[in-house]
Amino acid sequence: TRRSLSAIDGLQQPLRARYSNDAISARVEHAFSFTTGKGLVIQPLLPVVDYARTSATRFNEGQGAGALLGRSGSLESIRVGAGLQLFKTFEGNNGERITPRARVVWQKELGDTQARYSTGFAAAPDLVFGASSQAVGEQVLAW
Fold first, then answer.
1. Contacts of 68 (CB under 8 A, 6+ apart)
2. For 108, phi and psi rounded to 5 degrees?
3. What residues does 108 pair with on adjacent strands?
4. Vertex 123 angle, CA 61 and 5, to 5°
């Protein structure tokens, strides 16, 4: 990211942050399949479980007068829910197959909904303040 503090004399120098973070993600879903007489496949999805975890995030803007140093704890998201998927395969004239899909999944967030940062100025590391990310909704609808 890049930022500057244009309203404060002596802090107009542009600053650039470096971030370090790792993440893992996994998804598990189970579906029953029903096929209609016209070849439409209907799949109720139950359960749909998503898991994502990020390690502690660190950022550093260097040693400028207004440079920030910060970190956050790990963030863990566990979402469970259910959904429905529909699809049908169409045969082309030259042997090709096309399979359009329609899918809707509702999930509830059971883990963290917001990242919280502990931040301080590089020039005054004892002057620490908090910052929070935008909150993620507890109800998630994907289509």
1. 15, 17, 59, 61, 119, 120, 121, 122
2. -110, 135
3. 80, 139
4. 55
